[in-house]
Amino acid sequence: MPSSKPKQRDINPFPHSDSNKRYYTFDYYLKKKYGEKCAKITLDAGFTCPNIDGQKSRGGCIYCSARGSGDFAQSAYLSLREQYDIQVKKIRQKWNVTRFLPYLQAHTNTYASLDTLQAVYSAALALPGSVGLHIATRADCLPGATVEYIAELAEKTDVTVELGLQSAKDETARLINRAHSYEDFLEGYYALRNASSRIRVAVHLINGLPGETEEDMLNTVKEIAKIHPNECKIHLLHVLKGTVLAEWYKAERYIPMEQEAYVRTVVKQLTLLPEDIVIGRLTGDGSEADLLAPLWSKKKTIVLNEIDKMLYCQNLWQGKCAK
Questions:
Q1: CB atoms within 10 A of CB 127
Q2: Less Cβ crowding at N or C end of the chain, within 10 Å?
């Protein structure tokens, strides 16, 4: 006889889900918005960063690879169309997808002249199957003319600006050579918010930064809950070859988070975030060739399953403890 035990998805108390996930996944958001699965296509438009070229600092953040977080994009020596076609071909080997979101991920994608930005953004939006644009940048690289242009684009298509915050603790920002404060972040965040309600804003956070306690990581999420972005991405700090962090790790100046601590922290963070904030991701990918630690992060599916398991076993969900 068939089991009468209900499935987790059937007794899931979280409203923004069609599965066992007790948080608002990006995949669910896309299916609700477009009626079908969409795929993000990472692109490298060849930008740099003020934290690399000397305007703010040199060397970048202590964890940043030479690709500026664009390790999974194709080479910037290829045109955007060539990069896009390669990525789309790979994705279609796994899924039957017809809609795509070009994602300008590498380095700081608002750090250029307005003419350059207009050319790059227009080219990305003209790619076949494109339904919008995601722009990864720093909150201190949003001059008025750029924000105005993004607001104009948002009237015509779906635009998400992804802001790297990492931590709301200024002491941590100084330690990782972030070269901007939380106040600087808020200034850029509200510049976007005030320019147009149609601009989606996503905020990136990193768990496991040097010197941070679980309380620090939870406090950052509490601050994010106050400003209520459209989306939040939670990453695990990876130690990658060729970075300052790698030297700290080798010298035992930095100890990565253990999987159990990471899962526990993420679950607590989810309960603090309002239920309507889309969760863009709950862990990150480190290039396998360059990853030094933590090696457990390679088993991404296991990490996500452990998060799901803890939420279920403790009867928790996104927003349960949000104020």
A1: 18
A2: N
| Three-class DSSP category at 135 | strand
Helix (H, G, I), strand (E, B) or coil at 266: helix
Q: Which residue has the tokens 């059937």?
A: 10
**Within the chain, which residues score under 70 in pLDDT?**
1-6, 66-73
Strand pairing of 291-293 and 239-240?
A: antiparallel
Dist CA 62 CA 71 (whole Å): 16
Closest residue by Cα to residue 204 from 172, 170, 241, 236:
236
Alpha carbon separation from 42 to 38, 124, 168 (Å, rounded): 13, 11, 26
Dist. CA 117–CA 111, nearest whole Å? 8
Q: How many CB atoms lie within 10 A of CB 198?
A: 14
Alpha carbon distance 165, 184 (integer Å): 10
Helices (H), 167-299: 170-175, 182-195, 214-227, 244-250, 259-272
What tokens appear for 236 in the block?
Answer: 């695990």
Question: How do beta strands 239-240 and 200-207 pair?
Answer: unpaired
**Burial status of residue 235 (CB atoms within 10 A of its CB: 0-12, 13-18, 19 or more):** buried
Please say whether the beta carbons of 197 and 233 come within 8 A.
Answer: no
The pTM of the full predicted model, rounded to 2 decimals, is: 0.93
Vertex 237: Cα angle to 241 and 178 (nearest 5): 90
**What was the pLDDT predicted at 227?**
98
What DSSP string runs through 92-134?
A: HTT----EEEEEE-SS-TT-S-HHHHHHHHHHHHTSTTB-EEE
Whole-number pLDDT of residue 285:
76
Specify the 3-state DSSP secondary structure of 137.
strand
